[in-house]
Automatic annotation (TrEMBL):
Domain DUF447: from-to ranges: 12-138, 147-200
Pfam families: DUF447_C, DUF447_N
The name this protein goes by in its record: DUF447 family protein
SUPFAM superfamilies: FMN-binding split barrel (SSF50475)
Species this protein is from: Halarchaeum grantii
TM region(s), chain numbering: none
């Protein structure tokens, strides 16, 4: 058993690669939910790592490639990326690679997965998976920055992934996309603007 390469809190948006039946590694966006912390866990963990041994979790919605590969392969590579285009492509298009680890990943964790629950939400089958890292690596360290354009791309990608999904208001989602696009135009750099153009092309 290994540790995550970085402390988790709340929901961390990552890119996961899972091996498909064709032997290639499929990319997808994956929100990783930090383990629930017991009272005093923050103090006990010292560096912000969860003191609890409870696993992090993630959800798959519907019969996606990630759902299939988790079920059939029992694992994948969770990767921490900071490139907006990579995230958009992973979330909204079909991208497959011969190698599991992305060249631009700042860190990654190879995880074993176990399905811990299944429920129906507005006609969509939602599976919950426990993620247990068995190997991890920090590839590069960087000074953290807070860029609203990048954050807008991430939020817009989540909204775009829910278009035409039962239970979500398409008109509301499109209004969100318009708002996040305006934020990206004001605050993002060239890479963020390129990512939003790609998002628009993929989501229609």
């Amino acid at each position: 058993m290994s540790e995550w390469p970085t402390p988790l809190r709340g929901v961390t948006e990552t890119v996961v690669t899972t091996r498909g039946p064709n032997g290639l590694w499929n990319l997808a966006a994956l929100g990783v939910h930090a383990p629930e912390r017991s009272e005093g866990a923050d103090r006990a963990s010292g560096e912000g790592r969860p003191a609890s041994t409870a696993p992090a979790t993630a959800r798959t919605f519907g019969r996606t490639r990630t759902w299939r590969n988790f079920r059939e392969r029992g694992g994948g590579y969770v990767q921490f990326v900071d490139d907006a285009v990579t995230f958009v492509e992973a979330a909204l298009s079909v991208v497959e690679r011969e190698e599991p680890v992305l060249p631009g990943a700042a860190a990654w964790a190879r995880v074993d997965v176990e399905r811990t629950g299944v429920e129906e939400r507005e006609g969509t089958r939602v599976a919950t998976w426990a993620l247990s890292p068995v190997e991890s690596r920090v590839v590069r360290e960087a000074v953290p920055t807070t860029n609203r354009g990048y954050a807008a791309v991430i939020e817009a990608t989540v909204a775009a992934s829910r278009l035409d999904v039962p239970g979500y208001d398409t008109e509301v989602l499109r209004e969100r996309l318009d708002y996040f696009e305006s934020v990206c135009e004001r605050c993002g750099g060239p890479r963020e603007r390129e990512a939003f153009e790609r998002l628009r092309a993929l989501s229609g």
